[in-house]
Amino acid sequence: MARSTLDAYRKVVGMTGVPLPVVSFLGRLPVAMIQFGSVLLVTETSGSLATGGIVACALALGQVSLGPFVGRLADRHGQRTVVLAFSLTNAVAIAAYTLGALADLPTPVLAALGVLAGATVPGIGPLARARVVPLVRAKGGDDRLAGAVLSLESTMDELSFVLGPALVGLASVAGHPAYAFGLAALLVAVCGTGFALHPTGRTTRAAPQGPARARAPRPRLPRSVYVVRIGLVFLGVLLGACGAGITALTEELGRPGQAGLVYAAMGVMSAVVGLSMAALPERFGLLARWRVATAAAALLSVPLVWTDSLAGLYVVVTFFGAIYAPNLITGFALTERAMPPQRLAEGMTFAASAFVGGQAVTLAVAGRLAESHGAGAAFALGSAAAAVAFAIALIAREERPRTSREPLRSFAVTPDAAAPSDSGRPA
To answer: What is the pTM of this model?
Structure first.
């Protein structure tokens, strides 16, 4: 990694302090643990893979449905109170969900507990982005440092989705997946509280209340925000379909235990590339990055359709993992550029929910598709989603920003857009 890139990360950590990224990383681990572990936990206790899938989907949909609301509350009342309340509530909800699974409660009750566990997720990942980017800008950081923040945050996401499933796997080997859920409840209570009470939590100010609020209505969002969200939904579809395909192919090959390691290989590659994103020159603008990242996703997902061996799966998935972080980082960066400052936390949590929602819905559909037509069919669904995401990025055009703080242009979708310049220069 270039020295200038390392310097950028040092500056970011110097502005936030070391404890913030530590508690932020540990506080987002429970999300990865309960998402991956839900199928294992409920399947273990109920003896039904179908029940495990239904409850896991309910948990993900709970997170998607309430995630933007958490961000909106944080914008209005500040992150400290909101994150503290949701972290403690989520710890109780995870504990109740775990006890319900161990008690082998009926599927509708487990699904309801799953929705509660997902809906109370404090959203530490997207809220960390919404907290640290304005902090860095307030301390004189430029777009390069803001990009370094987003790269670092996405890398922590990647590492959490490598370590989280690994912890669940270790717990299963040690005795029972429920052990991992106990750890998840403890982590979200302790580290979520640490994230909420960190001094930087005061930098996220609440929106004006009372008469001042009445005189200043919430600013409307530019079309570009919705464009990015649609792109992130299709990225979620891509990764959900690939997840189902990987699970199906490893089962077809008689090596189901390898699925977790394949995910880890993809996640590690994504994390490495994510850290390197901060080295990209500023003249390589965000719109151009989005187009390149979605094009790469469409191209690198195609070989998965014809992969029929474990060795080939490892090779193809490792290369495919290189597109994951660039797409997420660019999506969050475009959201940060276009969102009015008063609604930044809402924008970040909505972007994360769009991505998770695409995954959640697709897992159920792609799973059935893989059962009926093989792993290649699930991979083909993902590749088609990537092609749609590329088409959305390709027809986007630049538009002038709606907030004075934004030096870079935003963009929108228009049918007559050709290929406008995306230099990243101030408008």
So the answer is: 0.74
